[in-house]
Design a protein that fits this description.
434 residues, Growth Hormone, Chain: A, globular, 17 helices
């Protein structure tokens, strides 16, 4: 049976909590390296902390998806996982930035910070996955594009807000420096306010969204449990029979996501070193650079949205993909050569071009190639591994690469640029099935 059309506000309510989740995710992305450097982490160890986000993503999201498929409560099947994940995230967001204020030894602070980061990654992934599933459960095919557009808007809006919080709170007068080993108030309060917005958004979603009961769900979606068991039991067979495009796009993905992992790990130090001439996390200049990096991330998000509007104008999808990655690679390479903080806007706008293509193009190529193969959901779930695994590999290699290139974190941005350029070259191997 055809699912009923939903009003704009019902579509909005399905995804509104994503706004709060994305604020939490943006705060993590922009500030984790800054926090651990402030707590005393060695730059050569920074990339190791970034193993946890993709590792938790590749573990948690399939588990939450599988379990929520089999969960039926009076609160719904997806919402209980959303609420539990958000509640844990809120608690961790209040604890993580205070790791340096607990009076622990440096080694104990690091262990506590790692535990909090693992819980934060787990809870954010647990809270994020249900929003994607709610749209799949309750929105008909004609309205899905509109529903995901709303989700994309809320995602970008939440990202921009989370990125600029430390800069904003410093601007209104909160301290942006603290004793050595202690995270500044501007960052701590960014996490506090982000946690408050997250829980309010989730409460709004819980009160406004009523999931279908089992009978209603089966009426509109049918019963696919047998197919789901078959798909999960034959993942190795699916990978063996995957079209060549699946693997060729995965190769491009490897270089792209490794490049961005190094940006997230080292860009605060790179900007601080290039513009402010220091990598001392106890200095006011370093913390100022941390705030400004958040603003640059927000500019990247805006640039990504603008470039996404340009991508459909390219007649050749492969050319659009390759050009976008080359522009992003150029942006990475320019970071160490822009000694003015406002000049840094140019590289991040270029990086936004690559980010827009990375979010849209790979799934376009893969879904085109999978037409007629069946098992679309299982294949796309497996394809998410091409996002997580490259980050894990890059994180394990980051410290060694930093040592080889001379211990300058700004040089890691050139490494990212080279990786994106290699990714652009690998686009030529893809055969696009229209």
């Amino acid at each position: 049976m055809q699912k009923p059309d939903l009003s704009f506000w019902k579509l909005w309510n399905l995804s509104f909590g994503f706004f709060g989740v994305q604020i939490a995710y943006a705060l993590q992305s922009a500030n984790i390296s800054r926090i651990f450097r402030t707590l005393g982490a060695d730059p050569h160890d920074l990339s190791y902390f970034w193993i946890l986000p993709p590792l938790m993503g590749i573990l948690v999201q399939p588990i939450v998806g599988t379990l929520s498929d089999r969960t039926w409560t009076r609160f719904g099947r997806r919402i209980p996982y959303l609420f539990i994940g958000a509640a844990v995230a809120v608690a961790v967001m209040c604890l993580l930035p205070n790791a340096g204020s607990l009076g622990l030894a440096v080694s104990s602070v690091m262990l506590f910070g790692l535990l909090m980061l693992m819980l934060l990654d787990t809870s954010i992934n647990m809270a994020m996955q249900p929003f994607k599933m709610l749209v799949g459960d309750m929105v008909n095919e004609q309205q899905k594009a509109k529903a995901y557009s709303i989700q994309s808007f809320l995602c970008n809006a939440g990202s921009v807000m989370g990125f600029v919080f430390p800069f904003f709170f410093t601007w209104i007068g909160l301290k942006n420096v603290a004793p050595e080993g202690v995270v500044p108030d501007s960052v701590i309060w960014s996490f506090y306010i982000g946690a408050a917005i997250l829980i309010l958004c989730v409460i709004y979603t819980v009160t406004k969204v009523r999931e279908w009961n089992p009978l209603e769900y089966e009426k509109y979606n049918g019963t696919h449990e047998a197919n789901e068991r078959q798909e999960s039991a034959n993942w190795l067979t699916l990978l063996k029979n995957a079209p060549s495009t699946f693997w060729k796009v995965g190769l491009v993905q490897f270089f792209c996501w490794a490049a961005f992992l190094y940006m997230w790990s080292y860009v605060v130090d790179a900007v601080s070193e290039t513009v402010w001439g220091t990598t001392d996390p106890a200095s006011e200049a370093y913390q100022t650079a941390g705030n400004w990096t958040g603003v640059l991330y927000a500019i990247q998000a805006v640039g990504s949205v603008c470039w996404a509007l340009m991508l459909p104008r390219f007649k050749n999808t492969k050319v659009a993909y390759a050009v976008s990655l080359l522009l992003g690679g150029l942006g990475f390479a320019l970071i160490p050569f822009c000694p003015d903080q406002y000049l840094q806007i140019v590289p991040f706008l270029l990086i936004g071009c690559a980010w827009a293509a990375m979010l849209a193009m790979p799934f376009t190529f893969v879904t085109n190639a999978l037409q007629g193969y069946g098992h679309m959901g299982a294949y796309l779930g497996l394809f998410n591994g091409t996002i997580c695994l490259p980050q894990i590999v890059a994180a394990l290699c980051g410290g060694a690469i930093l040592s080889v290139i001379g211990h300058h974190q700004s040089s890691m941005m050139i490494v990212s640029g080279v990786l994106l350029a290699i990714g652009a070259l690998c686009v030529s191997f893809i055969k696009d099935k229209k």
